[in-house]
């Protein structure tokens, strides 16, 4: 039988903005020493707007945007949504043979040419040159930069800005008050990640992490001897949510994340993570 105190607090939990799907994990929340947050869509709104378009070659900015958007039409990533929105209905050509390059970008055939839209990390891997100073300056401002490669030649770059959620700062300071370490995990590049982490007072940053490496990063923090929660919204985050002692999914996130989470934040508010821990302590604190 479920102890009365537990069923009462599960009801309380719902009125507090979260749902408990796994009681064992909810109980473990009272011992948390570290909370890992996904960046995009969790600490930030996950709504990217295009801020800069840099055309490197003979290509015009408009042509660059159209060609880039052609490939991004087929992607669900928030970066893709921002680029497609910016291009509007402006004669965006069709794409064939669309493929995603997991954790690094997308590619396809546009008007007979191979077009890739990729991360700075991908360019470094391929040893392709790019104007580093200019790109790093944009990244230090917290912008996410992607590059467009047309037939193996770098054609340009698009910078996008995301909004840090107001609630994120409160979430981090509440967790710090409870003596809990805050960690950020993202596929985005190091400078962009560092900017967001600096704004929020995050203690530890893992950037440029590929989707299939996210769970291993959670394990790395667990191996430092800590009980760990992972908070995320994306399909990419699901293995990390499963690895964590407490997997916390953003309610508005992907179905896969929500189905994997032990706890669901129904109001999509990272601040509610602190309430999860407080309520777990209040419920189980004296039952050890
Ligand atoms: P995150 O969820 O932290 O953004 P992802 O693994 O989804 O991590 O993406 C990591 C990086 O790969 C992005 O920051 C971007 O540079 C690149 N990327 C992923 N998807 C796309 C896309 N559709 N278009 C361009 N770049 C992409
Ligand atoms: Mg995300």
UniProtKB/TrEMBL annotation:
Protein name: Copper-translocating P-type ATPase
Subcellular location: Cell membrane
Record-stated family: Belongs to the cation transport ATPase (P-type) (TC 3.A.3) family. Type IB subfamily.
Source species taxonomy: Bacteria, Pseudomonadati, Balneolota, Balneolia, Balneolales
């Amino acid at each position: 039988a479920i102890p009365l105190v537990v069923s009462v607090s599960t009801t309380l939990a719902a009125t507090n903005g979260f749902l408990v799907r796994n009681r064992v994990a909810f109980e473990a929340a009272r011992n948390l020493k570290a909370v890992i947050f996904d960046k995009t869509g969790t600490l930030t709104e996950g709504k990217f707007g295009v801020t800069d378009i840099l055309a490197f070659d003979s290509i015009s900015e408009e042509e660059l945007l159209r060609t880039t958007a052609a490939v991004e039409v087929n992607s669900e990533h928030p970066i893709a949504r921002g680029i497609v929105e910016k291009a509007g209905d402006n004669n965006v050509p069709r794409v064939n043979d669309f493929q995603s390059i997991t954790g690094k970008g997308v590619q396809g055939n546009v008007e007979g040419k191979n077009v890739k839209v990729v991360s700075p990390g991908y360019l470094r891997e391929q040893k392709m040159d790019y104007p580093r100073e200019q790109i790093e300056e944009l990244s230090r401002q917290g912008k996410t930069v992607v590059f467009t490669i047309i037939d193996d030649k770098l054609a340009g770059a698009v910078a996008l800005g995301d909004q840090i959620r107001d609630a994120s700062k409160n979430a981090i300071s509440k967790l710090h008050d409870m003596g809990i370490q805050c960690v950020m995990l993202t596929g985005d590049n190091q400078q962009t990640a560092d900017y967001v982490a600096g704004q929020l007072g995050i203690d530890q940053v893992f950037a440029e992490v590929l989707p299939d490496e996210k769970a291993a990063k959670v394990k790395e923090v667990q191996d430092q001897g800590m009980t760990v929660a992972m908070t995320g919204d994306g399909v990419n985050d699901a293995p990390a949510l499963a690895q964590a002692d407490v997997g916390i999914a953003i309610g508005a996130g992907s179905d896969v994340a929500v189905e994997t989470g032990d706890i669901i934040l129904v109001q999509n508010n990272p601040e509610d993570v602190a309430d999860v821990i407080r309520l777990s302590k209040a419920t189980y604190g004296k039952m050890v």
